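Order emerges. For instance:

***
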Amino acid sequence: MRLERALDAYLRHVTIERGLSEHTIAAYRRDLGAYLEWLAERGLEMTEAVTPAVVTEFIADRSAAVPPPAATSLARLQSSVRGWHRFLAREGIAPDDPTGRMRPPKTPQRLPKALTIDQVERLLAAPPGDEPIGIRDRALLELLYATGARVSEAVSLDVDDLAYGDVLRLRGKGDKERIVPVGSFARAAVDAYLTRVRPGLAAKGRATARLFLGARGAPLSRQSAWLVIRAAAERAQITSEVSPHTLRHSFATHLLQGGADVRVVQELLGHASVATTQIYTHVSVDTLRDIYATSHPRAR
Protein backbone atom coordinates (compact mmCIF):
# COMPACT_ATOMS: atom_id res chain seq x y z
CA MET A 1 0.00 0.00 0.00
CA ARG A 2 1.15 3.53 -0.68
CA LEU A 3 2.41 5.30 2.43
CA GLU A 4 -0.07 8.20 2.10
CA ARG A 5 -3.03 5.79 2.14
CA ALA A 6 -1.51 3.88 5.04
CA LEU A 7 -1.19 7.08 7.02
CA ASP A 8 -4.81 8.02 6.30
CA ALA A 9 -5.91 4.58 7.56
CA TYR A 10 -3.97 5.05 10.79
CA LEU A 11 -5.32 8.54 11.45
CA ARG A 12 -8.87 7.25 10.94
CA HIS A 13 -8.12 4.46 13.40
CA VAL A 14 -6.85 6.74 16.18
CA THR A 15 -9.69 9.20 15.57
CA ILE A 16 -12.67 6.86 15.35
CA GLU A 17 -11.70 3.64 17.12
CA ARG A 18 -9.36 4.97 19.80
CA GLY A 19 -11.11 8.31 20.25
CA LEU A 20 -7.93 10.29 20.82
CA SER A 21 -8.10 14.04 21.31
CA GLU A 22 -7.71 16.51 18.45
CA HIS A 23 -4.46 17.72 20.02
CA THR A 24 -2.96 14.21 20.04
CA ILE A 25 -4.11 13.46 16.50
CA ALA A 26 -2.61 16.74 15.28
CA ALA A 27 0.72 15.72 16.86
CA TYR A 28 0.57 12.33 15.09
CA ARG A 29 -0.23 14.01 11.79
CA ARG A 30 2.64 16.45 12.19
CA ASP A 31 5.22 13.82 13.22
CA LEU A 32 4.23 11.23 10.64
CA GLY A 33 3.87 13.86 7.92
CA ALA A 34 7.52 14.80 8.46
CA TYR A 35 8.43 11.10 8.39
CA LEU A 36 6.63 10.58 5.06
CA GLU A 37 8.36 13.61 3.55
CA TRP A 38 11.72 12.17 4.60
CA LEU A 39 10.83 8.79 3.07
CA ALA A 40 9.62 10.41 -0.17
CA GLU A 41 12.94 12.26 -0.52
CA ARG A 42 14.59 8.86 -0.62
CA GLY A 43 12.18 7.45 -3.18
CA LEU A 44 10.29 5.24 -0.71
CA GLU A 45 6.57 5.24 -1.43
CA MET A 46 5.24 1.80 -0.38
CA THR A 47 4.83 0.33 3.10
CA GLU A 48 6.89 -2.77 2.25
CA ALA A 49 9.87 -0.59 1.31
CA VAL A 50 10.41 0.57 4.91
CA THR A 51 12.99 -1.60 6.69
CA PRO A 52 14.51 -1.42 10.19
CA ALA A 53 17.59 0.21 8.66
CA VAL A 54 15.44 2.94 7.09
CA VAL A 55 13.72 3.74 10.38
CA THR A 56 17.06 3.77 12.24
CA GLU A 57 18.48 6.17 9.65
CA PHE A 58 15.47 8.47 10.01
CA ILE A 59 15.81 8.67 13.81
CA ALA A 60 19.57 9.23 13.51
CA ASP A 61 18.98 11.97 10.95
CA ARG A 62 16.53 13.74 13.23
CA SER A 63 18.85 13.35 16.22
CA ALA A 64 21.64 15.07 14.28
CA ALA A 65 19.50 18.07 13.34
CA VAL A 66 20.77 21.58 14.10
CA PRO A 67 19.67 22.80 16.55
CA PRO A 68 19.27 19.36 18.17
CA PRO A 69 15.71 18.43 19.14
CA ALA A 70 14.74 18.12 22.78
CA ALA A 71 14.89 14.59 24.16
CA THR A 72 11.14 14.65 24.79
CA SER A 73 10.41 15.74 21.20
CA LEU A 74 12.61 12.97 19.80
CA ALA A 75 10.96 10.41 22.08
CA ARG A 76 7.49 11.54 20.94
CA LEU A 77 8.53 11.34 17.27
CA GLN A 78 9.90 7.83 17.74
CA SER A 79 6.73 6.80 19.58
CA SER A 80 4.59 8.12 16.70
CA VAL A 81 6.60 6.15 14.15
CA ARG A 82 6.51 2.96 16.24
CA GLY A 83 2.76 3.24 16.80
CA TRP A 84 2.07 3.65 13.09
CA HIS A 85 4.22 0.71 12.02
CA ARG A 86 2.75 -1.55 14.72
CA PHE A 87 -0.72 -0.71 13.43
CA LEU A 88 0.24 -1.45 9.81
CA ALA A 89 1.71 -4.83 10.73
CA ARG A 90 -1.24 -5.77 12.96
CA GLU A 91 -3.77 -4.89 10.25
CA GLY A 92 -1.82 -6.75 7.55
CA ILE A 93 -1.19 -3.54 5.62
CA ALA A 94 2.58 -4.08 5.91
CA PRO A 95 4.34 -7.46 5.93
CA ASP A 96 6.10 -6.78 9.25
CA ASP A 97 6.95 -4.13 11.82
CA PRO A 98 10.35 -2.53 11.10
CA THR A 99 10.35 -0.92 14.56
CA GLY A 100 9.86 -4.19 16.46
CA ARG A 101 13.35 -4.13 17.98
CA MET A 102 13.48 -0.38 18.50
CA ARG A 103 13.67 0.90 22.06
CA PRO A 104 12.51 4.37 23.03
CA PRO A 105 15.24 6.81 24.04
CA LYS A 106 15.64 7.55 27.71
CA THR A 107 14.38 10.98 28.63
CA PRO A 108 15.34 12.82 31.81
CA GLN A 109 12.62 12.56 34.43
CA ARG A 110 11.20 15.98 35.12
CA LEU A 111 9.49 16.59 38.40
CA PRO A 112 6.28 18.54 37.89
CA LYS A 113 6.46 22.13 39.06
CA ALA A 114 3.81 22.83 41.66
CA LEU A 115 2.87 26.08 43.31
CA THR A 116 2.88 26.47 47.07
CA ILE A 117 -0.48 26.66 48.79
CA ASP A 118 0.10 30.37 49.40
CA GLN A 119 0.81 30.93 45.70
CA VAL A 120 -2.34 29.03 44.74
CA GLU A 121 -4.44 31.15 47.06
CA ARG A 122 -2.98 34.33 45.55
CA LEU A 123 -3.60 32.99 42.04
CA LEU A 124 -7.23 32.13 42.79
CA ALA A 125 -7.84 35.55 44.33
CA ALA A 126 -6.21 37.43 41.42
CA PRO A 127 -9.19 37.88 39.03
CA PRO A 128 -11.22 41.01 39.88
CA GLY A 129 -14.38 39.77 41.55
CA ASP A 130 -16.50 42.80 40.64
CA GLU A 131 -16.22 42.29 36.87
CA PRO A 132 -18.11 39.62 34.85
CA ILE A 133 -14.97 38.25 33.17
CA GLY A 134 -13.18 38.23 36.52
CA ILE A 135 -16.00 36.18 38.05
CA ARG A 136 -15.73 33.72 35.13
CA ASP A 137 -11.96 33.52 35.43
CA ARG A 138 -12.11 32.84 39.16
CA ALA A 139 -14.64 30.05 38.55
CA LEU A 140 -12.33 28.49 35.97
CA LEU A 141 -9.25 28.69 38.19
CA GLU A 142 -11.08 27.38 41.26
CA LEU A 143 -12.45 24.46 39.26
CA LEU A 144 -9.05 23.57 37.81
CA TYR A 145 -7.42 23.46 41.23
CA ALA A 146 -10.36 21.75 42.96
CA THR A 147 -10.60 18.88 40.47
CA GLY A 148 -7.14 18.51 38.89
CA ALA A 149 -8.80 18.74 35.48
CA ARG A 150 -6.73 19.28 32.37
CA VAL A 151 -7.41 22.63 30.73
CA SER A 152 -8.84 20.80 27.69
CA GLU A 153 -11.24 18.93 29.99
CA ALA A 154 -12.36 22.12 31.74
CA VAL A 155 -13.15 24.04 28.55
CA SER A 156 -15.04 20.98 27.22
CA LEU A 157 -17.40 20.88 30.19
CA ASP A 158 -21.12 21.33 29.59
CA VAL A 159 -23.45 22.91 32.13
CA ASP A 160 -25.12 19.51 32.59
CA ASP A 161 -21.81 18.03 33.75
CA LEU A 162 -22.37 19.94 36.99
CA ALA A 163 -25.73 18.31 37.67
CA TYR A 164 -24.31 15.89 40.24
CA GLY A 165 -24.22 18.07 43.35
CA ASP A 166 -20.74 18.07 44.85
CA VAL A 167 -19.13 15.96 42.11
CA LEU A 168 -18.23 16.69 38.50
CA ARG A 169 -18.12 14.53 35.37
CA LEU A 170 -14.94 14.97 33.32
CA ARG A 171 -14.15 13.52 29.91
CA GLY A 172 -10.45 12.79 29.60
CA LYS A 173 -8.11 11.26 27.06
CA GLY A 174 -9.73 8.68 24.81
CA ASP A 175 -13.13 10.18 25.81
CA LYS A 176 -12.96 8.26 29.11
CA GLU A 177 -15.24 9.66 31.78
CA ARG A 178 -14.44 10.02 35.46
CA ILE A 179 -16.26 11.53 38.42
CA VAL A 180 -14.34 13.86 40.75
CA PRO A 181 -15.43 15.76 43.86
CA VAL A 182 -15.78 19.54 43.77
CA GLY A 183 -14.95 21.52 46.92
CA SER A 184 -17.20 24.17 48.39
CA PHE A 185 -14.99 27.09 47.25
CA ALA A 186 -15.02 25.95 43.63
CA ARG A 187 -18.74 25.21 43.71
CA ALA A 188 -19.50 28.67 45.10
CA ALA A 189 -17.33 30.32 42.43
CA VAL A 190 -19.00 28.34 39.64
CA ASP A 191 -22.48 29.05 41.02
CA ALA A 192 -21.69 32.78 41.08
CA TYR A 193 -20.56 32.59 37.46
CA LEU A 194 -23.65 30.61 36.38
CA THR A 195 -26.13 33.00 37.99
CA ARG A 196 -24.44 36.37 37.50
CA VAL A 197 -22.34 36.10 34.35
CA ARG A 198 -23.02 33.19 32.03
CA PRO A 199 -26.59 34.22 31.02
CA GLY A 200 -25.28 37.56 29.78
CA LEU A 201 -22.40 35.97 27.87
CA ALA A 202 -24.69 33.32 26.36
CA ALA A 203 -27.04 36.03 25.03
CA LYS A 204 -24.19 37.42 22.89
CA GLY A 205 -23.57 34.22 20.94
CA ARG A 206 -25.18 31.12 19.52
CA ALA A 207 -26.83 28.66 21.88
CA THR A 208 -24.27 26.31 23.38
CA ALA A 209 -24.21 23.90 26.30
CA ARG A 210 -20.59 24.65 27.14
CA LEU A 211 -20.02 25.85 30.69
CA PHE A 212 -17.29 28.42 30.12
CA LEU A 213 -17.94 31.11 27.51
CA GLY A 214 -15.83 33.87 26.05
CA ALA A 215 -16.66 37.59 25.99
CA ARG A 216 -18.65 37.17 22.75
CA GLY A 217 -20.62 34.14 23.92
CA ALA A 218 -18.61 31.45 22.10
CA PRO A 219 -17.14 28.49 24.02
CA LEU A 220 -13.88 29.38 25.77
CA SER A 221 -10.88 27.91 23.92
CA ARG A 222 -7.81 26.20 25.41
CA GLN A 223 -5.70 29.15 24.30
CA SER A 224 -8.00 31.63 26.04
CA ALA A 225 -7.94 29.53 29.22
CA TRP A 226 -4.13 29.60 29.10
CA LEU A 227 -4.24 33.41 28.88
CA VAL A 228 -6.56 33.49 31.90
CA ILE A 229 -4.01 31.51 33.93
CA ARG A 230 -1.08 33.63 32.77
CA ALA A 231 -2.91 36.90 33.53
CA ALA A 232 -3.84 35.65 37.01
CA ALA A 233 -0.22 34.66 37.68
CA GLU A 234 0.96 38.12 36.70
CA ARG A 235 -1.64 39.82 38.92
CA ALA A 236 -0.64 37.51 41.79
CA GLN A 237 3.04 38.44 41.21
CA ILE A 238 4.09 34.82 40.84
CA THR A 239 7.51 34.94 39.21
CA SER A 240 7.91 31.20 38.54
CA GLU A 241 6.54 29.82 35.28
CA VAL A 242 2.84 29.00 35.44
CA SER A 243 1.66 26.74 32.62
CA PRO A 244 -1.80 25.33 31.83
CA HIS A 245 -0.81 22.18 33.73
CA THR A 246 0.47 23.98 36.83
CA LEU A 247 -2.80 23.83 38.77
CA ARG A 248 -3.16 20.13 37.92
CA HIS A 249 0.36 19.48 39.23
CA SER A 250 -0.39 21.52 42.34
CA PHE A 251 -3.65 19.63 42.91
CA ALA A 252 -1.85 16.27 42.89
CA THR A 253 1.12 17.44 44.95
CA HIS A 254 -0.99 19.04 47.66
CA LEU A 255 -3.22 15.97 47.94
CA LEU A 256 -0.22 13.70 48.46
CA GLN A 257 1.34 16.14 50.93
CA GLY A 258 -1.95 16.03 52.82
CA GLY A 259 -1.81 12.24 53.10
CA ALA A 260 -3.91 11.08 50.12
CA ASP A 261 -3.19 7.60 48.78
CA VAL A 262 -1.41 7.62 45.42
CA ARG A 263 -4.05 5.35 43.87
CA VAL A 264 -6.80 7.76 44.88
CA VAL A 265 -4.86 10.58 43.22
CA GLN A 266 -4.42 8.35 40.16
CA GLU A 267 -8.20 7.94 39.93
CA LEU A 268 -8.81 11.66 40.37
CA LEU A 269 -6.28 12.58 37.68
CA GLY A 270 -7.57 9.95 35.26
CA HIS A 271 -4.17 8.29 34.79
CA ALA A 272 -4.30 4.86 33.16
CA SER A 273 -1.28 3.68 35.18
CA VAL A 274 -0.27 4.44 38.75
CA ALA A 275 3.31 4.75 37.46
CA THR A 276 2.33 8.05 35.84
CA THR A 277 0.99 9.34 39.15
CA GLN A 278 3.99 8.20 41.19
CA ILE A 279 6.15 11.00 39.79
CA TYR A 280 4.29 13.28 42.20
CA THR A 281 5.43 11.20 45.18
CA HIS A 282 8.98 12.42 44.50
CA VAL A 283 7.78 15.97 45.08
CA SER A 284 6.28 14.95 48.42
CA VAL A 285 9.44 13.09 49.43
CA ASP A 286 11.48 16.22 48.69
CA THR A 287 9.15 18.21 50.92
CA LEU A 288 9.46 15.65 53.72
CA ARG A 289 13.24 15.74 53.38
CA ASP A 290 13.28 19.53 53.70
CA ILE A 291 11.02 19.46 56.73
CA TYR A 292 13.17 16.77 58.35
CA ALA A 293 16.38 18.70 57.65
CA THR A 294 15.06 21.86 59.27
CA SER A 295 13.17 20.24 62.18
CA HIS A 296 15.21 17.32 63.52
CA PRO A 297 17.99 18.32 65.93
CA ARG A 298 20.42 15.76 64.53
CA ALA A 299 19.44 15.88 60.85
CA ARG A 300 22.65 17.70 59.91
